Every structure is written in structure tokens, then in C-alpha cells.
What we know:
alpha+beta; 4-stranded mixed β-sheet
Amino acid sequence: MTDLSKAPAAPEGEGPLLAWFKSSRWRALQLTAWGVPIFLLGVTILQGFSIEWMKFWQLWALILLFLAGLYGLQRKVECAVGAEWLKVGKTWVRLYELVEVKAKHRSNAIYLDFEDSSGRWVMVRAHDLQGSRDLWDLVYNGILHSVIANGAATNGLVHKAFKVPHADPRSDS
């Protein structure tokens, strides 16, 4: 999104907002539409490949609730970044003071968990950070600095999925 009137505010006492991302309505509808055949196939498999379940209006109401929830989840996430901070929803971390950067598979996506030196913690889907190239570049630079210069704790998926180099242990002289 580029409409600055809808941009989230920077955390109190931090520098200005430089980039932000919120999934568009169209993108949320596309992702929700993918959920329809997946959900229908899943219920059909659970029913032993019988389509008799489609006769019951209660299940269609459940499907509509599922789809509304899926759409809402897609539209809910809002990521914002400044020169030294990342904000996801109401929580935020300082990117150049990260003490832990972990990547984890949750559902069908990779999530990044960040913790900074003040104990603040943010969890965000990597795809949401990568929704804006400018936002991802700023976050990635903070990750690189925290891992290489500050020795932030990581796991293998951070290095494998995002090509974050390992800190050189020989540089600690």
C-alpha cells in the first residue's frame, strides 16, 4: 500500500516510518479463493470421498465462516518499518538490536520470530515482510547486522530459507 494517510504510526520515540505493507483486498480475496477447493477437498476426503455431505446447509454455513475468517486473517496483518525498527500490528522490535532470529514452519508458511535486547518480541509471516521490497530490504539489513555483528541466535531455517550468512567466529578477536 502507498496511501500514507492509512500508514501505521511509528513506535513512540522511534524514527519515522520508511515502508509498510498490508495485504490488499484483492490479494486477500485471491488467497481466500484458493482456500475453497482445499477446504472442499479436505471435507470430501474426511467423508470417504463421498459428496453426500454437500446436501447439508449447516456445512455450507461452516464453510462461509471459514472463508470469512481466512479473509480476515489475510487483511489483519500490517507490517511497518523504519530505519531501525520493525512493527507488526501493535508489537515492535529494534532491528539492529536483535538477540534472536528464528524461522519456523507454521501451517503452510515460514514465520520469523524476532526478539530484541529489550525483550520485545515479534512474530510475522515472512511472506508479509516480503510483500514490499523496500520493507524487506530494511528488515533483512537489520537481520544481517544482528546476526553477523551482534551474534544474534539463529536456527538453520533462517540461514537456509533466507540465505543469512553465519557469523564468522574468527572475527571475535
